[in-house]
Amino acid sequence: MRVPFVDLRTLHHEIEEELVNVFSRVIKSSAFVLGPEVEKFEKAFAVYCGTAHCVAVNTGTAALHLVLAALGVGPGDEVITVPHTFIATAEAITAVGATPVFVDIDPVSFCIDPQLIEASITNRTRAIIPVHLYGQTADMDPICAIAAAHNIPVIEDACQAHGAEYKGRRAGSLALAGCFSFYPGKNLGACGEGGAITTDDAELAQRLRMWRDHGSLKKYEHLIAGHNMRMEGLQGGILAVKLKYLDRWNDQRREVARHYGKALAGTQLTLPVEMSYSRHVYHLFVVQTDDRDELRQQLGDAGVETGLHYPIPLHLQEAYRHLGYSKGDFPVTERVKDRIISLPMHPGVLTEQIDWMAAEIQESCNVG
Predict the structure, then answer these.
(1) Is the pTM of this model over 0.70?
(2) Measured between alpha carbons, how far is 19 from 224 in angstroms, rounded to an integer?
């Protein structure tokens, strides 16, 4: 039985007519960059996240980059984040000339450990970027309390957390700004690249609109040397369509996760935990086992696509060797990276597929 890691074809088939209508509208209007489709999405996504503003950009990486740039973060500054994340989190920091300062993760949530943040703050710390990993938010109250005590802004890396909640509030509304990626495989994915920043700060939103569009708020008048990080009209229209279905798709992901939990109970796998403060939307379903490589090989041989998120922590990547970190600096991250495996997760995973995968896992683990 073949089980794909992500199945976008089936997801798009359901809404194909609406997506084709978007393409037709954009072709007729010729509003290929920004324009009414993007503006419509910005308004809808701001309402969805519970913020006053949304600024659409071309990638999640750009979203992180632009917030740091708009806050004036640059050379000589430090930004605290985690080593257990996709490289884009750190790339945005180095793109503005600042230095990533890594803090280890909580062993249960896989998000930043708030108890370790204070010790990493220096007089050069200009921002903290907690990563809402795998579809679950970081524990934001203690993070924001520490940041407020030091007058440091907090930027949510919510690129994997579309619709996730923290104590009843949605990701993207929990700090100064929230940064989202709409890469196709995300819970809310474009048909191409896309990103957005949510915020309640009107002045910051205005600066972000200027930064994304060559430092301009009026054509051919450039207040700063900015960037070209604008969202395409087609992607804005597609995202506005998909946003209507996001809650339903997230509920389906949660049901897939529930069935995984039931089917995999009794195996030696360590299953993901939904924290008491969080509503998990399961962008990824990440389990742990000491025999990760053997299990992945067996599942692959059986036709099950899996992933590793992430096999090499950022502090051990060649790209960040110059930061001076060494193996052993972040023990939780380094233990996790050898044990994690991401099982297929999307709204269309079938219960019979989960039961069949569970049987394969039982055999691999020699349990039951």
Answers:
(1) yes
(2) 36
